[in-house]
Amino acid sequence: MARVSSIITNFRAGEISPKLEGRIDLQKYNEAAQTLNNMLVYPSGGVTRRPGTFFAGRSKDGGKVRLMNFEFSDEQAYVLEMGANYIRFYKDGGLLTEATKTITAITKANPAVVTSNGHGFSNGDRVFIKSVAGMTELNNQEFTVANTATNTFELSGVNSTGFTTYSSGGTAGKIVEVTTTYSATEVFELNHTQSADVVYLAHKSHEPAKLTRTTATSFTIGDIDFVDGPYLDENDTTTTLYASAQTGSGITITASADLFTSADVGRYIRFREVLEVHYDEWEASKSYANNVKVRFNGHVYKHTTGSTQTSGNTPPVHLEGSEVYGALTWTYQHDANGYVVITGFTNATSVTATVKTNAIGISTLPEHTVGSSNATKLWSLGAFNGDQGFPRAVGFYEQRLYFAGTTGQPQTIFGSVSADFENHTPGILDDDAVNLTIASDSVNVIRHLLPARFLQILTTSSEFTLSGGTGSQPVTPTNVNVLRETTFGTSDIRPVRAGNSTILIQKGQEKVKEITFNLDTDGLLGIDLTILADHIPRGGLTDMVWQQEPELILWFVHSDGRLVGLTYDRANAAVGWHDHAIGGSGIVESITAIPSGAEDQVYISVKRTIDGSTVRHIEFIKTIEFGDDVADAFFVDSGLTYDSTATSTITGLNHLEGQVVSILADGATHPDRTVSGGAITLDRTASKVHVGYSYSSTVETLRLEAGADDGVAQGKIKRIHGVTARFFNTVGAELGPDTDNLDRLPFRDSSMAMNKAVPLFTGDKEIYFPSGYETDARVVVRQSQPLPMTVLAIMRRSNTFDA
Q1: What residues does 663 pair with on adjacent strands?
Q2: For 320-344, how does the pLDDT look when each residue is reduced to its tens digit (9 = 90+)?
Q3: What is the pTM of this model?
């Protein structure tokens, strides 16, 4: 359980308020928390029980997955389930499917046959079935379609002969999925950034890619087809290259020395011709013979009128075909530059290639790069692919898309043409592509690019900022300024922006750093956030996300599967750690968050063992504010809610098969049950039932520091003889000197009907505290029922013995 800094966990002692404004005076009450388990810290004071997690679905085939956010808008936000060679999507608390099809019948057979008129499914499709009446064993599960006919399909491998008879209703929807080339390990190494409906993906072993949202239920993914670049520096050796043709596919590129490998397939080659050496500049009022070639504004034209003619005052400017300018017809030939993509490897000196179309629509190589007599030293190899590998970092800054961290150039940054994210045409104009290598006294492999006041470049050993000139000017190819700011080193875990700070996990993964701008130094300053509770991240943190609503919380995944929270409100000097063990011995493996109404929705992937099989549950933390009806309180993990006509049978719990579950029925606790056949039977009927794993929430105070006459109270004998606990919207709690000696506090009184749930309580509870004489004098408050608990203050009455 987590030890927490008193900077935040002093509980409120003033007037009770849902906003929990203010904090208790530490010197007066000395009630900071030593331990918080499954309790959230409010930045404004007080601690509240972590809401339970709602079951959204299972990962495909139970495999390990990474969760990633995709936010097209507040209303169109998705969670990506990224597994081995696939991506699936969650929206509105469940798996995203195409338009659902109505089910009209399901057979009790092996395999089960579903009737759905004109369903349109194909063999191998994955479908999600819900809302079936009768044969409820199929609800809230996915199945593989087999043996399709126009109006029927089989559920592959499903023997329904022992299921309840189908009675009516139900829908089946094809699960939206895209195929990828990323392994289960590689998805955790992906770096990403988003612009509107496109997410750009970077991985050191894969071509940069983009995931595109085409409709609300349709996505595509593919490698980025870059326009002209990026490139390494132009060749400065004696090796020459020439092409077999100016245009087309299947042309041959020949080198004068060993240059190519099979890994170069997909790599770009850029050719350059010095136009001034080969062509005269076009002039007005000049006589031009037929077939003469001239240059103008970086383009080459051929006079094709058929006879000698004199030019007028208008130069040729078109970029394809032939056009007439006065008495002359000029035919466009080529530009000073052209590039190809390698499509096949022949040997170390020969490859096949396709001439690419550049940013202005030209797909022609310069004339003096074609043929062995025109072998040239003026060429550049693509910066990605081949021996260079691929970038591992990606990020936006000032209308440019930046990539960085290739194997061949780990300290080089490649920025796109301004406002043209997939175009890397090199040049010196202000809006041309930007290439820069960090000059440093050590190798700093770039791991992350994060936009802020400047572009933050986070590497394995240092943190840099990139800006234009003095920082007030936009970045251009000629004014890039990079400064080293701090020297912590960043892990592979993607940093986040929290408020006006960058939060990163150091390369050892046991320290969390806050990187923020400091006016005194006019640069970035790094603050260690784990110094407040350095035992919590010990062993390593593996994932991180920022939840901004309703409270400011950084969430982390610990390597041992715990969920760790850090309440982070730097503006109000409120920083405090808290620890969260997921119910059912769940192992958290990944985390993300998306906007969802008034609260950001935090999703987690949880590894569990169900019915003897290893599965991953995709769950999200329910909202903190559940209202004023205890029946709406959701404090079970991997849970579901039944909300309909009163019943004593709750079905659709297949994801908890064989598990002991905790139950809240119409706001009242119910004895635990074991799920069998995806269902449980209640002792009484109820219309609103929450079912899931139980978990305990605990608050433990620090050692008492009060009452000493001749110095500090630490190490002196003390005795607590009474405690006043102040609660807000709470039902049920236990209190005592330690976890082995807790008494349940009474929340029901004689005025309450015994057949009704205990209402939410706000106020003080006075407790006689039967503790002994000891040096610590702690107070423990615990909630182990599926009910809410918010603690605003714990006020002890005690004696300290100076002798």
Answers
A1: 670, 691
A2: 999 999 999 999 999 999 999 999 9
A3: 0.91
